[in-house]
Amino acid sequence: MKKMTLAGLGILTFSTLILGNQTALATVEKPEADTEATVQFEANTDPDTPEVVVPPVGGGEGGIVDPDGSDGNKGDGNPSFNIAYVSNFRFNERSDDDTNFTKFKPIKLNANGMTQWAKGTQLTLNDVDKDGKEITPAQSTVYKNIPNFVQVVDNRGKLSGWHLEVSAGDFKGKDSDDQEVTLKGANITLTQPTIAGPSEIELTSPLAPTTFSSEKTLNAGAQTILDAKANAGTGSWSLKFGQEETLAGADYETLVEDTGVKLTIPATAEAKANVAYKADLKWTLTDAPSN
């Protein structure tokens, strides 16, 4: 009888342990575990890194400016914060034999006063790979007769905002006697500004920079033409001048004639024939909103 009791007790004890474990396991119906994903960034301040310019028309992804096929310049910043590109303003047609944007056809002078509109600019971009490096052999996209524009890039990750200013000096040149002459009272006016930036950001969003409403006449004093408040203006942003149209068969917008950048020459300008007048424009990008 004692042996049977011990055997029965052993069986009872074993069964209780098994049932107890099954009850504990059954209470966890959806096991969970926690992990983490991390990422960290730094600003690219290497001045030797080629800058990628996003075309202001056509919706292309961008490329490295080919200076031989483009009529403009860039700032002296670095790839994380800079004036990535700004076009020259040409009020004359290019000569038929011009190859580097230095030869132009003279305009017939009207000493009673004149208004001239800048011609569309040309931008040539060399294609880049997914890492932003230029593809070899070079593959280029040429944008002809597009609106004159300036492009700012802010990839610093500071979110501090910025503003872009521009000033313009007098039109000066040398006459046939090698004497400096000035086109008195002539001025440049920027009209019909349009902002272009990352497609995911609406232009009415607080993340987009703002510009002047209709036109701004330049002078020797610096004037703000593009302003990004704190948290705004990150990425690449272009400010274009003038109306745009897409011609049949084209895959990007071109400048409508007699719109955009205007040169006003008063009757009192004392304009002289056969003088190559030039005005210097200064574009300045500042690491802070305008106010």
Describe the overall structure:
It is a single chain. By secondary structure, this protein is mainly β. It has one domain. Helices cover 9% and strands 32% of the residues. A five-stranded antiparallel beta sheet has the order 3-4-8-17-13, with no helix packed on it. Strands 1-2-6-7 form a four-stranded antiparallel beta sheet, with no helix packed on it. A four-stranded antiparallel beta sheet has the order 5-20-12-15, with no helix packed on it. The model is unreliable at 1-9 (pLDDT under 50).
Based on Cα principal axes, name the global outline: elongated
Residue-averaged pLDDT, rounded? 91
Share in helix = under 10%
Order of helices and strands: HEEEEEEEEEEEEEEEEEEEEE
**Strands in their spatial order, largest beta sheet:** 3-4-8-17-13
Task: Please tag this protein with its features.
5-stranded antiparallel beta sheet, mainly beta, single chain, disordered N terminus, elongated, 291 residues
In terms of topology, how is this protein built?
Blueprint: H1 2-26, E1 52-53, E2 63-65, E3 72-73, E4 81-87, E5 114-117, E6 121-126, E7 140-146, E8 149-154, E9 162-168, E10 172-174, E11 180-182, E12 187-191, E13 193-196, E14 210-211, E15 215-217, E16 223-228, E17 235-241, E18 244-245, E19 254-255, E20 261-265, E21 281-286
